[in-house]
Design brief:
About 50% of the residues lie in helices and about 15% in strands. Helix 2 packs antiparallel against helix 3 and helix 10 packs across helix 11. The protein folds into two domains: about 140 residues, no CATH class; about 280 residues, P-loop containing nucleotide triphosphate hydrolases (Rossmann fold, 3-Layer(aba) Sandwich). The strands form two sheets. The protein has a six-stranded mixed β-sheet with strand order 6-7-8-3-9-10, sandwiched between helices. It has a four-stranded antiparallel β-sheet with strand order 2-1-4-5, with helices on one face. The N and C termini lie far apart (about 60 Å). The longest helix is centred in the first third of the chain and has 32 residues. By secondary structure, the protein is an alpha/beta fold. Bound molecules: adenosine-5'-triphosphate. The site of adenosine-5'-triphosphate has 12 residues, from strand 2 and helix 8.
Length: about 425
């Protein structure tokens, strides 16, 4: 009885794959080739790498199962320790096979806009995808050819190098680990930010905002070219370090020092050694003036309000007078009035010809102070991608809303309370750029 059910499932799975391959632009007859058809299925689900690993795992699985059987029926004599090693290896390969199969089946569910939980049935060898293959109402979100064309057009787009402003051409930023393999954190982010722009960086949690900032400052290098006024940030890092200011989210200031000492210590660290004491003093005064700290310069940092502490942190970083000034959520923990006051000061800095890039989670209350917006989102592969870069007005048109928070909600995944439109909008923006 069990064998009959298994046989029926096998026939259904072949028919299902036959239809899926046809819908995804592959040759249907490949569904007849055992093992290889699973690889083709992974290709349809845009999980080719996982499919390749699965083929290798299948090969190992068969070799190991054969060895265990041979030992069990005493065809070959091995020591107890070797037998144990073979069994443990078998176990590892089986678990890996299960994990990779889940990845492929889940991606198949996403491809056919179905709940990922259907992959649980597939793991039990129930070929639910039979229906997706044979019924017309189930269509994949993209074919293999469409994805290839899209990938080629995206990676072909490059921002022209410029001797002015910030030119960013990030092909990818990847990390690798033994357990999780290669993970692409960012892909295909290209833009040119002219001098004197105040730019907002938006995106849901984990979209890659900090990774993106680290890549453009050269703090964590990507496969990229980043030019600041025509100079390569990765190659000329030493000479450009005074030109780039980065204010992290967490304040890194000592509470027991006075405000003036904090800024003066920072000046010692950040200003070139060639600068005279008199000049240094002048710069410290200028910066305290810009950030409204003169009146409290002799007070202890620890006694200042949240807004003042934030301004002290920012002033300490701004002392080197950077051309590119980047701030990671400078308004976190500040009320509306203080946040606006801080953004107005940053806006004034941008009007002196510098580029200011700010991550904020409350964009709508200060959007009139910004020129442009960069919006990042995780695509279906959970890779950070560019959804939009341009003026706030153009963003309103592109997203058909004038609320920046609404734009972020649109690109966030459904399980995060969003509308899950990231992939669609990434493609739309890529298409506009290639026109
Ligand atoms: N060195 C790393 N190794 C592995 N994964 C990483 C590494 N750095 C970042 N990530 C992953 O990359 C993704 C993007 O992280 P990132 O911190 O850039 O997001 P974010 O947009 O700044 O998020 P948030 O707004 O929550 O701070 C996350 O899934 C994170 O786990």
């Amino acid at each position: 009885m069990f064998e009959i059910v298994q046989f029926i499932f096998l026939i259904l799975s072949i028919f299902g794959m036959w239809g899926i391959f046809r819908k995804c632009g592959e040759k249907s007859w490949k569904a007849l080739i055992p093992f290889y058809r699973t690889y083709i299925l992974s290709k349809c689900a845009d999980k080719k790498d996982e499919g390749r690993v699965l083929l290798i795992l299948d090969l190992f699985n068969n070799i190991l199962s054969f060895s265990v059987s041979a030992i069990n029926i005493k065809l070959s004599n091995v020591s107890a320790i070797s037998y144990r090693i073979i069994v443990i290896l078998s176990l590892i390969v089986s678990i890996s096979t299960i994990l990779y199969t889940i990845k492929i089946y889940s991606a198949l569910c996403v491809l056919f806009k179905q709940n990922k939980w259907w992959s649980a049935l597939m793991m039990l060898e129930i070929p639910i995808y039979f229906f997706w293959g044979v019924m017309n109402r189930f269509q994949p979100t993209s074919t293999i050819q469409e994805r290839e064309v899209r990938a080629a057009s995206l990676s072909e787009y490059e921002e022209k190098e410029s001797n002015e402003g910030l030119t960013i051409n990030i092909k990818s930023r990847t990390v690798s680990s033994l357990t999780k393999g290669k993970k692409v954190l960012l892909r295909d982010i290209h833009m040119h930010i002219p001098q004197g722009r105040m730019v907002m960086l938006l995106g849901g949690s984990g979209a890659g905002k900090t990774t993106f900032l680290n890549a453009i400052t050269g703090f964590e290098k990507a496969d990229a070219t980043v030019l600041l006024n025509g100079r390569d940030v990765y190659k000329d890092f030493e000479s450009l370090k005074y030109e780039i200011g980065f204010v992290p989210q967490q304040d890194l200031i000592r509470y027991n020092d006075t405000v003036e000492k904090t800024i003066s210590d920072s000046a010692d660290l950040r200003l070139p050694l060639s600068i005279s004491k008199q000049e240094e003093k002048k710069k410290i005064n200028e910066v305290m003036d810009i950030f409204g700290l003169k009146a409290v310069c002799q007070n202890l940092v620890g006694k200042q309000s949240g807004g003042q502490k934030k301004r002290i942190s920012i002033a300490s970083e701004f002392i080197s007078n950077p051309y590119l000034f980047i701030l990671d959520e400078p308004d976190s923990g500040l009320d509306g009035v203080l946040a606006r006051n801080l953004m107005e000061r940053l806006h004034a800095i941008s009007r002196t010809g510098r580029i200011v890039i700010v991550i904020t989670h409350s964009p709508d209350r200060v959007k009139d102070l910004f020129d442009d917006v960069i919006i990042l989102a995780k695509d279906a592969e959970r890779t950070g991608r560019l959804v939009f870069y341009g003026s706030i007005d153009d963003a309103n048109t592109f997203f058909n809303t004038d609320k920046l928070e609404e734009m972020v909600r649109m690109i966030n995944r459904k399980e995060e309370g969003g509308e899950g439109l990231a992939d669609e909008l990434i493609e739309k923006f890529g298409g506009l750029r290639n026109e």
